């Protein structure tokens, strides 16, 4: 008996039965999880060099607050070493397997999109990964600044012992918050491409947007110090400015003179030319 796949069960307009849709979601999730597992195994094998790289910002804190002048992280519990290795392996696995789970996400939603929207999704997927890595790289070079500020506030005659779990949680939060924040301007570009968000609306909301970015940076950063806040807010505002510039040129190209159908999707009605209709009615009345 021939097994029906998604193309067999899908209608010409991309619709498919609910159970087939759920089976497709299950299959995509299994493939994405398998990719994550393979990446995590590689991360487990390469744990030592990756961990040496991750802990470098901590080694740059003031040595007077370290034990015997050597800044080492502290393992508090019996299982801390295992869980740290597991978390780092999963984090690296998520990064290494990103092409796999991004493709599975794309393959799941693509049949329900129009051809024009599919092209936009390719743009999103192509730009999302570099932007995330750009934000994560900025977080990495900024982590030591926040650590120095707060650890430096400890009295001079004290020794600061930082647990390995605490530091890993701080590092993960910094990397993911910076990386995901750098994706927000890309969403603005995508909303403009599909006609949801115009340049005029972005321009009118610029002041509110700048204020919101600073508030978000002050609340979202783990250390919430001024240096880390500015390191997140200022580049994000620059990226939003590029997104607004893109929206400006895209909207201008969309409304070219004589191109009254630009920006319309396949199932959207075109606007009526009322002046032409009135002229035709007036002409008909004269001939009558």
Please provide a written account of the structure.
The chain has about 290 residues and is mainly α. The protein has one domain (about 25-255). The protein contains 12 helices and no strands. Helix 2 packs antiparallel against helix 5 (about 100-110) and helix 6 crosses helix 7. It is flat. The model has no long low-confidence stretch (mean pLDDT about 80). Belongs to the TatC family. It comes from Actinomadura livida. This is Sec-independent protein translocase protein TatC. GO terms for molecular function: proton motive force dependent protein transmembrane transporter activity.
The assigned structural class equals mainly alpha
Distance between the termini: 69 Å
The major beta sheet can be summarized as:
none
What is the share of helical residues?
55-70%
Number of continuous helical runs? 12
Task: Give the overall pLDDT as a whole number.
Answer: 78
Number of domains: 1
Radius of gyration of CA atoms, rounded to a whole number? 26 Å
How would the global form be characterised?
Answer: flat
Percent range for β-strand residues: under 5%
Number of strands: 0
Instruction: Note the run of SSEs as H and E.
Output: HHHHHHHHHHHH
Q: Which spans have pLDDT < 50 for at least 5 consecutive residues?
A: none
């Amino acid at each position: 008996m021939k097994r029906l796949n998604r193309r067999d069960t899908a209608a010409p307009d991309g619709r498919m039965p609910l159970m087939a849709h759920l089976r497709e979601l299950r299959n995509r999730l299994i493939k994405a999880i398998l990719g994550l597992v393979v990446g995590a195994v590689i991360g487990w094998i390469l744990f030592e060099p990756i961990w040496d790289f991750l802990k470098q910002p901590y080694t740059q804190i003031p040595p007077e607050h370290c034990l015997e002048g050597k800044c080492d992280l502290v393992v508090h519990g019996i299982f801390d070493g295992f869980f740290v290795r597991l978390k780092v392996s999963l984090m690296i696995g998520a990064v290494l397997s990103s092409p796999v789970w991004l493709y599975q996400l794309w393959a799941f939603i693509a049949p329900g999109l129009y051809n024009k929207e599919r092209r936009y999704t390719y743009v999103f997927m192509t730009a999302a990964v570099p932007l995330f890595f750009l934000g994560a790289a900025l977080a990495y070079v900024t982590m030591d600044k926040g650590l120095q500020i707060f650890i430096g506030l400890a009295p001079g005659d004290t020794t600061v012992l930082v647990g390995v779990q605490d530091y890993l949680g701080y590092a993960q939060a910094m990397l993911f918050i910076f990386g995901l924040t750098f994706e927000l301007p890309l969403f603005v570009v995508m909303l403009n491409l599909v006609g949801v968000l115009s340049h005029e609306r972005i321009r009118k909301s610029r002041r509110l947007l700048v204020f919101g970015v600073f508030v978000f940076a002050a609340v979202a950063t783990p250390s919430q110090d001024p240096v880390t806040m500015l390191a997140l807010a200022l580049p994000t505002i620059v990226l939003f400015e590029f997104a607004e510039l893109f929206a400006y040129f895209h909207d201008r190209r969309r409304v070219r003179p004589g191109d009254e159908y630009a920006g319309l999707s396949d199932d959207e009605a075109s606007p009526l030319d009322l002046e032409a209709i009135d002229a035709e009615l007036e002409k008909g009345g004269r001939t009558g």
